[in-house]
Amino acid sequence: MSQSISKYLSKIKWKEVFSFIIIAVILFVILKMLTGGLLGTSLVVIENGPHSSMWPTYDQGDMFLIVKVKPENIHMGDVIVYRSNLNPNIPDSQKLLIIHRVINITKISTDEGVEYYYRVSGDNPDSNNYVDSYNISSTLIPYNAILGKTVFLIPKIGYLRLWLSTYPFVQYLVIGFLIVTLIYLILSPEEDKEKKEKKEEKNEEEITKKEKTNVKDKIVKNLQQLPRKTKDKVVNIFRDKRSRTKIILSVSIIISLIILIPILDAIISNRSIDTGIKDVSLFQIQEYDNGEIYFIAYKIYFLHDGTWNKVLKNFNCTLIQNGKELSYMYWYSFYQKEGELTIGGSFIVPTTDFNVTQPFTISISYSIHLRFGQDTPYSFEKTFNE
C-alpha cells in the first residue's frame, strides 16, 4: 500500500501544483474582495451613473480599495463606504452601500467612551446637494455602519465587476476552470521515461559540481576581490570611449526631458484655462436633524488646463463669519481632474453658531504642485450676504 502511494506521489509535479495553488489563492482573494471583503479590505465599484453622486470627482466603473480603519483615523474629506439604514427591516447584506465624502465628524461621550459619528454627502452639485440620511430620523452615521475608507483607486476597471454582477455564471465558470486545471495538474501522466532519466542525470551532475565547490571560500574570495573589481569597472568606464558616450547620452536625455517636458506641456495645454479655483456660488442653506444643524451647500468652479506638469488634486474650504472659523471641508481626488468642472461643496455648522441674516465668507486655499518647479500657494475668497 505504501509503495503504491509513494509511486503515485512521485508522479505528481509538485512545482506546478504549488504554482497553481498560489495563483488560485490570489484569484480567490481578488474574488472575495470583489464580493464580500477579506480581513477588513474590500474592492468597491461605483455602480450608478454616468454622472453619479460622486461625479465629477469619480464616476461609474471606478474601483476603490477600501480598508476598515479605527474611528479616529477617518478624517474630514475622506471618501467612505457605509450601509444605509433607511430600510431597517432588511438584513445588512441587502442594505444599500453608499460611497460618499465625510463633511462632518461628531464625537459623543458615553459611559463606555467616545463614540464617533459621521455626516457625508456626494460631490455632484446637481443631484446630491443634501446631507445623507442614515435613517429616517438622523443624518449621523455610526462607526459600526462604515465598511471602510478608500485608500486607492483604479479608474474604470470596475466595469469588469459590473459585468460579472450582470452575468454571475461567469464567476462559476472561472471557479470551475480552476478546479479542473488543478485536477489535471495533479493527475497528469509522468513525463517520458527517457527525458526523465536525462533530467535526473543532469541534476546529479549539477549536485556533484556544487559539492566540489567550497561555497565559503568562494564568498570570501569574491569579497576580497570586490574593491579591486569595482575600481577597475569605474576606471574602465571613463577609459572606454563607448562607455563615456553612453554616460553623456544618458545625462543629455535626462536634462533634455527636464527642459522639454514643461515646454511641450505648455504647447498642448488649453490656453483658455488657468489652473485653479475660478469661482464659488452659494446653492442653499437648509436645516437638518430637527433644527440642530445648518447644511450650507455651494458650488466650486474648478479649472485645470490639462498639463502634466501642474497638479491640483486637493483644496481646503473654510466657513468664516464675524472673523471666526465655523466649519471647514477638505476635498481631494486620487487622480488629476482636467478641464472645467463644477464640484459640490458643503459645510455642517450648529444652528447656534451661525446667523443666516449676517454675511459670511467662503475661503478656499490650495497649492498648485509643479513636477518641475516649486509649489505655488493660492487662495480664493468670496463673501455672501444672506
From TrEMBL:
Main location: membrane
GO cellular component, one term: membrane
Record keywords: Coiled coil, Hydrolase, Membrane, Transmembrane, Transmembrane helix
TM regions (residue ranges): 20-46, 169-187, 247-268
Keyword match Secreted: no
MF (Gene Ontology): serine-type endopeptidase activity; signal peptidase activity
Keyword tRNA processing: no
Cell location: Membrane
Chain coiled-coil ranges: 191-218
GO biological process: signal peptide processing
Enzyme Commission no: 3.4.21.89
Protein name, as recorded: Signal peptidase I
Organism whose genome encodes this protein: Candidatus Heimdallarchaeum aukensis
